[in-house]
Design brief:
The protein has one domain: Alpha-Beta Plaits. Helix content is 11%, strand content 37%. The protein has a 6-stranded antiparallel β-sheet. The mean pLDDT is 93. It is globular and about 40 Å long. It has 108 residues and is mainly beta. A hairpin with a 2-residue loop joins β3 and β4. One of its GO terms (biological process) is proteolysis. This is Serine protease. One of its GO terms (molecular function) is zinc ion binding.
């Protein structure tokens, strides 16, 4: 059966409390697509993959789950991934305000 995308992982945005997510929290809606951007020059984690809403950095894919995504992006396959907002909870602690799902898109 054809599926337009397949779920790979679910997590909260790492470092959300340190970036600018609070400035756009009211714009973040479940189902919205976010952009990923590898940061191979990141001094803390060379496999870091940043998460953006438009041009606003929200944080990162958690470091314990970013290796495969980072590697695929390094080999030119970033477009195979889709990151969607699954849940937004403005009342939660900042590091649990936005939960996202990572999907791989079917290229058939």
């Amino acid at each position: 059966m054809y599926e337009p995308s397949r779920h790979l992982a679910t997590y909260y945005i790492a470092g959300y409390q340190h970036w600018d997510g609070a400035l756009v929290l009211n714009e973040l809606k479940p189902g919205a697509t976010l952009r990923i951007a590898p940061e191979p020059e990141n001094p803390h984690d060379p496999a870091a993959v940043a998460i953006y809403h438009e041009d606003v950095k929200l944080g990162y894919i958690p470091s314990d789950q970013n290796r495969a995504v980072s590697l695929m992006c390094a080999y030119g396959h970033a477009e195979a991934f889709e990151l969607r907002i699954l849940q937004v909870d403005p009342e939660a602690a900042p590091w649990h305000q936005v939960r996202v799902g990572l999907y791989v898109q079917d290229a058939r």
